[in-house]
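Subject: two folds for Thursday's group meeting

Dear M.,

Sorry for the delay on this. The cluster queue was jammed most of the week, so I only got both jobs back this morning. I'm pasting them in the order they finished. Each block is the input sequence followed by the predicted structure tokens. Could you check whether the formatting survives your parser before we put anything on slides? The first protein is the one we discussed after the seminar.
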Amino acid sequence: MKTFQIYKSYNELPKSWDDLLSHDIFLQASYLQALEKASPSNIQLFYIGVLLDDELIGVAIIQRVQLYLKDMFRKTSVSCIKTFFRDIVSRVLKGNVLVVGNLTHTGQHALYFDKRKVSQKDFLEFIFQGLQVLIKEIREIQSKKIRAVIVKDFFTDHGIIDDKSIFKAHKLYEVIVQPNMILPVREHWSSMDHYIQDLNKKYRDRYKRARRKLDGIVSRELDIETISKQSKKLHELYLNVSNNAKFNTFILPENHFYCLKKQLNDNFKVFGYYLNDEIVGFYTLIINGKHLETYFLGYDAEHQYPNQLYLNMLYCKLPLKPNCLKVEK
């Protein structure tokens, strides 16, 4: 018999959880544990498991997100048109929203099921049943009304969106968003020089200018002790970038990068940029099997443009040589 189970913490996940999800680090217990321990204050995590008798055959990551105007639009200098748009968006989204997926990262990390043991239609029906139970419990226990349900993200060629009838039956509608930037790594790129050689002259010159403008700034990987000691500074640099975004739904806590490093070990990388032994920027990476996925970054605005920190960070991600480099916009 097939049924579903709601889990309210990584501590409740069945032992077979990672066996089913070995292909995706963003669905594995170690990552979920880190995310719970260092989740944005407005995000609460739940998990739905679909079971065949007692065997786990499908999962969904659920986040209850409390959206506040101050978090969504942190830049105060906006035009009348932007203010009008902001007010419309905030009226629709402000409040409690259930997200099937991970709001802190883009990509197809919301759902997974064993196609040999459950059909897509049946799997999704169990997930929507679980969502209705969660919505009721949140209303009764936490006195919070869920204003919307979001299921994210899927590539346009993903089979799960071929049949939209089940989503429409639950009053969900497709929204097109900016695509992930994905760069396949060519076989002969065994060093940065090989990558640069494949660029046309315009971009080779751009690379050389960016490297020259580092002007004494050096990059090195941070170990867990350094990440712990530098947590406050890393968070300040992250906020420099986050606070200048046009739209936000959360703020990472100060311990976020430390918790990920503690749980993911070598699968989570933090690279710091130092000028005279002072950190002026950083970027983070998550190794997900054969894919290298960019994560959050931060920099001192004083050094961003004159030293082209962001562009240099993009270049420096290439030599790690997984099969594919995924760059988040």
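Second protein, same layout:
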Amino acid sequence: MVNRREVLGGAAGAMGGIAFVGCSLMGAAPAQAQTRRREVVVNGRRVKTVDVHCHCAMPEAMALMGVKPNPPELHMSSLQDRIQVMDMQGIDVEALSINPFWYKTDRDMAGQIIKIQNEGLAKICAAQPERFVAFATVALQYPDLAVEQLVEGVKKYGLRGLSVGGSVNGEELAAEKFHPVWAKAEELGLLVFIHPQGTAELRGRLAGNGGLDNVIGNPLETTIALSHLIFEGTLDRFPGLKICAAHGGGYLPSYAARSDAGCTTFPDRCTKPLKKHPTEYLKQMYFDSIVFTPEALAHLINEVGSARIVMGTDHPFPWMRTAVDHILATPGSSDAERAAMLGGTASQLLGIRS
């Protein structure tokens, strides 16, 4: 495990080269201002809130590849700025992740990037252990190396899960080559957070006004990734694998019954036998709450169960700056269910003390 005292010694000032990705659209208070911390209460009881979907970046790692924050609204911000925004939004703990930009790099470069990132994530968590935990990053394009990095990230650096993209250089996460990674994640009992990178194959059709590569492309990639994990039998092979899908699982939970109907209508196209109906696998996965309306969240709950929902903001992007109120305002949930979605379930999955 990471030595907190040693890490804190190198975490002063600018956190040793670590920075958060901030967004000018967030309207955060200036660093010097004091922000009153919002405490979230459900039926008179204070609950700990956990955001499982929030991003940060390591400038040193990005510089190795000449990568800059994109879009232009993004900028590097300080740890204190991030905490102030968390306080305003009522977020007690963030589970940090880094979107993969390194899947096309060679093995040596990938090793350097992952070392910088996992060490940096550990420093942030050690500096503010009550406010941050983190998902380990790995070079998924090299599964054997990814397994080594995952074990090191958990056992040496104290990271709490694994974050991956929705595909790897055009290969599906369900591909057999990635089985060793899922086997190790299952063995370690880790939560695997899947965040899409868009649907590159449709870049031409998604070009133009409206940012469709993100608005449509991101949830589409998640839908494709989850569907392959189901239909290729990956979730049968690794029944204990804990998957958390970003953006409410994309489109899959909203149209899941078609997956069941497909094999009934076209049995010749379902050549790999599954242990249960495709829709049943949704209830062994987890989904963040980023679905934008109370009605959409209520539908997601109806499809997968409230015990499978965890809160997400997509910070620093201002999609869900009212993530707490989004859950509190969704009809049909009990106080216990709201408390679980706000942070109880995520705390159990990520080993966060109540």
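Two things I noticed about the second structure. Confidence is low (pLDDT under 50) at residues 1-17, 27-32. The CA atoms of residues 169 and 251 lie 22 Å apart.

Cheers,
T.
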